[in-house]
Amino acid sequence: xxxxxxxxxxxxxxxxxxxxxxIEIGLDHFPPLLFSALRFLVAALPAVFLVGRPKVxxxxxxxxxxxxxxxxxxxxxxxxxxxxxxxxSSLVLQVQAVFTALFAFVALGERPGRTKLLGMAVALAGIxxxxxxxxxxxxxxxxxxxxxxxxxxxxxxxxxxKAAPPDPLNFMVWVSTVPVLPLIGxxxxxxxxxxxxxxxxxxxxxxxGVIVYVxxxxxxxxxxxxxxxxxxHPASSVAPFSLLVPVFGTSSAALVLGEPVSPLRWxxxxxxxxxxxxxxxxxxxxxxxxxxxxxxGPVPLAVNERA
Length: 307
Prior knowledge:
The chain has helices spanning 3-26, 32-44, 58-81, 86-92, 96-108, 114-137, 140-163, 168-177, 180-191, 193-201, 205-232, 235-238, 245-257, 263-280, and one strand spanning 296-299. By secondary structure, the chain is mainly alpha-helical.
């Protein structure tokens, strides 16, 4: 990879890591399900009119939209609103690589090798250590919802692999159209119209800036740039940069939000990052990293969101 492309990959990881801090700030302005709906609404519009027609079957767009947009992000935002710290969430969410490998074995017949099985065991040990740390002082309900979000991310990764979108940006924009109405419906049902209307009436520059960041910077730019890199370099060269996401997420949460990082959390971080590396970056196997880390940032297409 050229130095400029390395810098771009590191920048995307930083944007996705900081995204967890931005989400934490956004949850002070919006209920979690409404916030997630607004994120996808702004990500889809006006981009959906600019990227052209969908390049994969609608069943894959709808499937990924529900698994990734409604389930994964709905659970993640709700878990963080219930007390799961931003830094810990950015770290724990990476266990999606383990669930991706498990679901790929069940649905696609991709048998994990010994290295991948070892990585899965190490990552799950990291989840156990993180649970001990969070159980001592934090919200276990929020922590459990973040784990459930990682499970849903694994499902969406397998669906994305089956869809094999030729244009990741086009795919992500169309996927973003699916969760909007279901999330608004869930928000009205669970969070209530009064709370939603109060949040929208109180919209200020900070709230608008948060939505722009998570929608356009973390989602549209992040996914588009990541897909651009994947079209020019092997996945085994690009995907390792996704391991920087929890590094940036944890450090930015400590610096901006003042989140403490206990010795147990350092131990959990080492186990999780090491386990995900072994699970996702099984060098020498052709399938090792194509979908193990589809974001988070956020999750990333062919990365976790990401968020």
